Amino acid sequence: MPYNSFEEMPIWQKSMDLAVEIYDMTETLPRKEDYGLTSQIRRSALSVPGNIAEGFGRKHTKDKLNFCGQVGWSPALPAVGGEECRPCNDITISRKPQPCLSRLNGMGGQLHYDARGSLAETKSHLIYGHRVGYFPKNRYDGAVSMLEDVWKQLNSLINSLAQKIK
After folding, report:
1. What are the residues facing 91 on neighbouring strands?
2. Nearby residues of 80 by Cβ (< 8 Å), 6 or more positions away
3. Where are the domains of the chain?
4. pLDDT tens, 39-98?
């Protein structure tokens, strides 16, 4: 479905809702975390809708993929096999080795600050915050559920864009 603005995209809306939830969850963190967990988790969470919006503004499908993430990787999948990408020395991990996205889009550099990477970083920070007792179970579970929903939608978007460049 074509969208006139990134704000119309359900994936952007849900990822923005997640960023707002993370902001709310970190409002009560100790002051000593202002430059640690609070700053890091807020930045990573806000990078997700930001990268989706930036990808929306790109003209070419290959550029859009750059902001969504590498094809075929999931933190839930075991690290089985991988293919080294010569231009960027990145390792792609999936059930079946996938080509590195930089090969697909013709860009030599390693991909940085993509939405899926930021989402994985946010989950890592959530896990840490919960383990050290900053986030109560009900808030943690709710945020992880939101994050997993965004993850699924983001993977669908990535797969859809990847099919367009094949």
Report:
1. 84
2. 93, 94, 95
3. 6-69+111-165, 71-109
4. 999 999 999 999 888 888 775 545 545 545 543 334 443 333 333 333 333 333 333 334
Distance CA(88)–CA(99), nearest Å, equals: 12
Rounded to whole angstroms, how far apart are CA atoms 6 and 13?
Answer: 9
3-class secondary structure, 51: helix
Q: Which CATH class is domain 6-69+111-165?
A: mainly alpha
- How far is it, in rounded angstroms, from Cα 147 to Cα 107? 29
CB-based contacts of 133: which residues, under 8 Å, 6+ apart? none
Residue 126 in tokens: 């959530």
Cα–Cα–Cα angle for 71, 45, 56, nearest 5°?
Answer: 55
Instruction: Give the single-character DSSP code of 27.
Output: T
Q: For residue 155, which amino acid is it?
A: N
- 54-66 pLDDT, tens per residue? 888 775 545 545 5
Length of the chain: 166
In angstroms, the first-to-last Cα distance of the chain is 20
